[in-house]
Prior knowledge:
This protein folds into 5 domains: about 1-165 and about 280-340 and about 515-525 and about 560-685, no CATH class; about 170-275, no CATH class; about 355-370 and about 445-510, no CATH class; about 375-435, no CATH class; about 690-750 and about 815-915, Lysozyme. The longest helix is centred in the C-terminal third of the chain and has 15 residues, at about 725-740. By secondary structure, it is α+β, with helices and mostly antiparallel strands. This is Lytic transglycosylase domain-containing protein.
Amino acid sequence: MTTQANSQPATTSQPAPPQVWRYPFPVQGGKEITDPQILYRALGRMEDGFFPLGVNGFPHGGVHFGAGSARELDQSQGVRVIANGEIVAFKLDDAYEHINFTQDHRWGMYSTGFVLVRHQMTMPPVPGSTAAQPADETLTFYSIYMHMADWQTYLADGNLVRPGWWPGVDAYRIGNKDRQTGEGGAVGAFVCKAPGGQRVALLPEGSEVIIGEKRGRWGHIKSITSGTMIAANSGGYFGREDGGNVPWLRPDGDEYGTAPLTTEGDWGWINYHDQRALKEPQNVGQVVVPPQPIQVTAGTLLGQLGEYHDYERSTPMPPVPARQLLHLEVFAGEELKPFIERSRARAAQLPADGKTILLIQAGAKLVPKEVDPDLTLGHQLVELTLAPNSPKVGPWILAQPWTSSFGGAIHNPDGSPVWIRRDDQSKLDSPNSLKAWSRFPLQLGSVADPANGTAQAMSHAQLDSLDKNRVAADDRGVQWWRIDFGTADNKAARGWVCGKDHPGTNWESPWAWPGFEFVDATGINLADAFKRNLVVCGNADWKEQSKFEPSVAAVNGNALLQRLEQTVARQPLEYNEKPPQKGKNGEEVVTAKKLQRAMGTSWLASELAHEILRYESEWGGGMARWDAITPLMRNARENWLCELTRIRKLQWWDEVKGKVAGFPANPVVNHIHPVALVGNFYVLGGKITVTMLRKIWSSAFVSDQTLIDLANQINENMSAYKLDSEQRLTHFFAQVRTEVGPKFHLVESLDYACEPLKNTFSYFRHHPAEADLYCRNSQHFADQEKIANRAYNDVNGVTDLGNGSVESGDGWKFRGRGLKQLTGKYNYAQFNSTYPSIWPGENVDFVRNPDLVGQMLYGVRSAVFFWLRGRLNTIADQTTTANADAQVDKITAVVNRSTSSYGERRNHYHEIMNQRVFRGVGE
C-alpha cells in the first residue's frame, strides 16, 4: 500500500542558493571527509556493490556500504543525506522481510526500507546578468538510500539514534548538533525566537520536548518534559533565582538588558530534524509520499543501516542480524546530458576564483623532489627567526638570519631570508653549518620524467587534505602538492605539482564537470551479462563456454565494458606480481574483482567513479529481464525463484512515479557515482568567492588579486575566525566596507581637500583655521603625514589612542591599517601583546613595524582579533529583520565611535543582506 499525496517541487522567487554537500559518512572519530579517495578505498573493501559493474556482471548504478567500509567510515551514527533537498518518498519497514531458500531450507532477512530525496542544483548565472535564469539551468536529481533499518531495530536498541524528520512524531530527545558559542560551550540544540531566527537559549543534550507547530525543519516547543534551558552563549545569563528558567523573563545578572527574549509563554523553536524521535512515525510498513516534501539539509540523519542477507549469510535457523548494508545511488533523467553540456559552456564564462579543480593532463611532468640545498649557514649567525611570510604548511620554512654587533647588544639582519627544513626548526637558535636554500626548494624548472599517464582531476579540498608533508607553500603563498599518479607504462609514481603555471595543468570550475563521461549500457541484455559473467569467472562448463560466446562478445562490445577494459588495464602491478591473464584476443578481462582492486589506486578509482551510467534502474522496469535468467540457473533454480520474489518486493519505482512531481516515469536513467558527484562540488563549510566580494567592491576600484587574497585569508581560517555564517559575515563586511572604503585602502588615505578635512577629524572641526596650514598646493590637498600627526596626537586630550605629541610622529606611524583600520599606538600594542597567544611561533612586532598591518594577512587578523574580543558575533547572531539597524549600531559603537558613519554602515548591511551575498557560506 502507498500513502499518496501531491508532492510538488519547491518554488521560490529568490535566486537559488548554492547547493551544500556532505559525504554520507564521516571517518572514524567523526571528522568530515575532504578526500574522496578515503571513500573509494572504503568501497573497495566491500565484497560487492561496485560501480558501474556488479559482482554478478550486471551494470550497477549505486554503491554499497557495510562491514568492509566500516573499517574507515563511522557508520554507527547512520547515513546522512548528501546534499540539501527534500524527502519525497520513503518506507520504514515494521519488521524485515524474510527470504526462505526452499531448496536448502535456509533463511535470511532483508530490508525494503528506503528514503528518496529530491535535489536541485542551479548553475551560476551569466556574469553581470540580472535576468531570471531559465528553467533548463536548474537540474533536478535524486538520491536513494536503500535497505534502511526497520522499526523493530529502533525499538530493540534505545540508544540507537533515530531520525528527527519522521512525520507524525511530536516527542523528541535533544541531540548534540549545536554547541554554545564561546569557550567550553555545552552541546544540545539552539532555541530560536522564530524559525532560523535569533538564538535565545540552548537545550542541553538529553533534554526532552513536545513539539507543536512545524515549519519545514523547525518545530515550535509546546513543552519541555525533561531538562532545563540554558544561555545560548557559554557564560551568558539565563534564568532567575525564583525558578523562572524560561526564555521570556529577563535573567538575573543581565544588567544592560542584552539577553534576547521570546514573548511571554513562548518556548521558542528548535531544528527538530537534528533531534531524536521518541515515538513511532506514521504509516510504518508503507511506501509514503508525504503531502508536502520534507526539507532536509546536507548532513541530516536519514536513518540507520538495515539488514540484507544473501545466500551465504542465510542459516537453517530463523535469521538474526548478520549483515548491515546500504545501497546508495544518485540518478537523474534524460535532462542530465543537456544540462551538463550547458553547464560546461557556462563554466568558460565564470570568474577564475571559482575554478577549484586542478586538472593534470596526460603527459604532464611533475617535480620529483626538491633541489639540493645551495647554502651552508656560517658561524657568524647568532640566530634565525621565522619570516613573517613563512608558510604554515609544508616540509620547509622561511627564516631570517641575524648577526650581532657591539658585543652582541645589537642584532642585525644578515641578507635575505633563507629556506630550511621544518624539521630543523629546533636549530633556529644555533644555525651554524645548517643546510639551507636561497630560494624555495621546489622549482618548476625541475620537472622530470616519468610523465603522468592519464588525466586526473583533483579538487582543492582533496589536495589540501593530503598529509602535511605533502602540502607546501612558497613565500608568495603559491601552493604545491605531492600527489600519486600512474605513468604511461602502468607504474605508480609520486611528484610535486604547483598550483600556479605548472605546464600541463589547469584549473577548472566544478561546472565544467571535469572527467565526467556518459556511457550507455542500455544495450546490455541481462541474460547475456549473466552468461558472460559465468564464463569470465570460470563458472561455465566447456559446453557453455562455446555456447555463450555470442553473449560474451555482445557484452564485451558495449561501450561500458570497453571503457572499463581501458581502466583496469592500467592497474599497476605489485612487486614480482605476474600480469593478469588476458582474453583470447589479448584484451583485459573485466571482472568485479579487478574493479574492486582498482578502487585502491586513486587515479583509477576516480576514473571509474566519473562514468555516468545510463541504464535501467533495478528498482523499476518490471520482472521480465530477471525472469529471462531463470533457464540459466541449472541446479540453483529453486533458490533463484526465491530471489525473484525478493527482487519484486524491492521494486518501488511504480509506487512513486506519477505521485512525485518531476520524477522520471521511465526507469532508464543516468546514474552518477555519489562520491564523485559530492567530490566535484564539495566545499567544506562553504567558501567566500571573488564573485561574492564583487557585489561589495566595484571592479573599477579593486583588483581581483586583492579580493582573492582577502577571500583566501578568511576561507583558510573560517573556523578559527568564527566568521562562519551569513549573518556574521554580513555584519563583518558591512563594517569593513566603510572602514576600507570603495577603493579598499588597507592603509588609511589622508589625502583630503581642505574643506572635507574640516569635517572629517574632530580636531579640525574645532580648529578649522588650522586645516589650511596643512594644504600643500593650490589644489588644497592636505599633507598626509602632518595631518595624521596633528589629528591623532594625544597631547592636550586630542585623542586617547596612546600616541605621543605631534612631534613624536606617532599619528602617522600608527595611522589606520587593516580591514578595521587599526589606529593608534595603544591599539597596535593591544594587538601586539595578544597576538603570540593566538598565532604562536611568529616573530612579529606590530609596534616596531606597524606597516605589517597593511599586509592582507595581518590586516585581516587585526580586524578579527578586535571583532572576537568585542564579542561582536554574539550581537550578529541576535539579529532579526526587526532589530537589524539597532544591531548594526551596537557593532559600530565598538568598531568606530564616530557617529557620522552609522547610517552608511546600516546601508551596507542591508545591501549585502538583500543581495544574500554570503548565502550558504559556512553551512
